[in-house]
Amino acid sequence: MNIKNRITLFSTVWLLIILLVTNSGIYLLFQKNLHDNALKGTETRMESLTEAVKTSTETKMNMTQLLRAYLPGDSMIRIITGDNRVAATSSRITDDDSVQEIKPTYRPNQYSEVKTLNGMVYTVSQHPVIWTDGDVVSLQLIEKESSIPNTLQILRIVLIIATLLILIPSYMGGRFLSRLILVPISNLTKTMEENQRRGTYKRITINKKSSDELNKMARTFNHMMDLLENNYKKQEQFVSDASHELRTPLTVIESYAKMLKRWGSSRPEILEEAVEAIHSESIRMKELTQQMLILARDESQVDLQLEQSDLVEMAKNAAKNMNKAYDRDIQVHSNLVEIHVECDSLKIKQVLIILLDNAIKYSSAAINVELTKQGNSVRFSVTDYGIGITKENLDKVYDRFFRVDQARSRDTGGAGLGLSIAKQIVSAHQGKLYLESEEGKGTTVTLEIPVKQS
Ligand code: ADP
Questions:
Q1: Mean pLDDT of residues grouped by 10 in the chain (454 residues)?
Q2: How far is the CA of 425 from the centre of ligand 1 (A)?
Q3: What atom in ligand 1 is closest to the CA of residue 386?
Q4: Residue 89, exposed/middle/buried by CB under 10 A (0-12, 13-18, 19+)?
Q5: What distance in Å separates the CA atoms of residue 269 and residue 343, rounded to the nearest whole number?
Q6: Whose C-alpha lies nearest to ligand 1, atom 9?
Q7: Full set of structural domains in the chain with CATH
Q8: Buried b (16+ CB within 10 A) or exposed e, 280-298
């Protein structure tokens, strides 16, 4: 059974149960009220009858005549003796065998009840009286309440009609409501199926005015499609950039290998040059693939080994090592002697090396490293006074494989992945990377990370 039918069926059955319970309550209450009123009437008439019987016994009046005189329409009076025998009967009830089913039972006290026999209602009232022969008998008045079954029949019809009048529009309403809810869901399913079949990223049309849950669901779906499409495009771009980057060293290796095959054994200078080139290109490829592997991971998947590390010491060590390797002047300044932060020291060191490496590659003057601890965050900046980056390229430098000057960067050894990796590591630390640069004057890259990790 589909959801539409399930919703309709559930709401209708639920309403039907509520109506049945309420209507039964109304019916039973009304029935009791009718029975009570009828019984009260019978009891009142019984009291007058008892009085009359008492006086007539004293005045020795004709009892049969008296009973007849007091007998209301559609009723019967019986005198029941102590041995449950009927001593006298006076009746106006005709063509009714059911009344005979009420057994004559002697009752020493006042007694009254409502009896339903074969769909007909009878009220029975009994009083003990002294009969003409001096014995105590039970005077019984039975009244046939013909109007009660009729009234209840009318009530039943009214309640059934009212139930149908409520159920039919509620059933239609249920169907309408379920359609209203399910149309957007089936639209979503259709779009998803189409996307799956055709490999597209189709969005759902959104009603801008509405802000209900279904609209929210459609928005979420569209947002998810945006993300998927974006990721897919990025992935495609990454794969094409990566293969493009790897093609160059592979071509170099291939051409040197050809040279080796042809002249390698006869010309030792070619042998040396080829081996040297193949070796350096293989190292470049190895580095490139390592960097690509890092970037292939999402920043949320970066596995951080958190520990307390002194960033001042880390910066000083990195500066010393870079100074040794490249013979460049790198100054480290800090507003505190030690700045301890909970971070993955190896990864933060990697960021520091990427920034210092860029500063070394794109400048020739001294490089400044500045550390400041302010409140709950640490700022860490690397400033160089080199070629700088133009405004239009500032936002692009974080893109994978982006290099301002392709030819020059290739010479300097950069593949355009350094800043992307740095940004990924900093984001994994819930930090930020800022870039300020002026063409021809220099660049400052600042990394900011919180002191306490959440
Ligand atoms: P690469 O490994 O090529 O340096 P990056 O992602 O680190 O890759 O940098 C991307 C590009 O941004 C570089 O190719 C370079 O053109 C530019 N760039 C990065 N840092 C600097 C800097 N300090 N000064 C000038 N240009 C820079």
A1: 83 92 96 96 93 79 79 90 90 81 92 92 94 88 93 95 93 87 87 92 85 86 92 81 80 89 83 88 85 71 85 93 90 92 90 92 93 92 94 88 66 76 90 94 95 62
A2: 17
A3: 24
A4: middle
A5: 50
A6: 416
A7: 3-153 (3.30.450), 213-295 (1.10.287.130), 301-450 (3.30.565.10)
A8: ebeebbeebeebbeebeee
User: Whose CA is closest to atom 12 on ligand 1?
Assistant: 397
pTM score > 0.85 for this model? no
Nearest by Cα to 144 from 187, 101, 204, 208:
101
Instruction: Decide: 401 in ligand 1 pocket, CB within 6 A.
Output: no
CA-to-CA dists, residue 423 to 40, 73, 89, 350, 429, angstroms: 93, 104, 111, 11, 10
Query: Which residue has its alpha carbon closest to ligand 1 atom 25?
Result: 388
Residue 120 β-bridge partners: 117
367-374/330-334 β-pairing: parallel
What are the backbone dihedrals phi and psi of residue 437, each rounded to the nearest 5 degrees, phi first? -155, 150
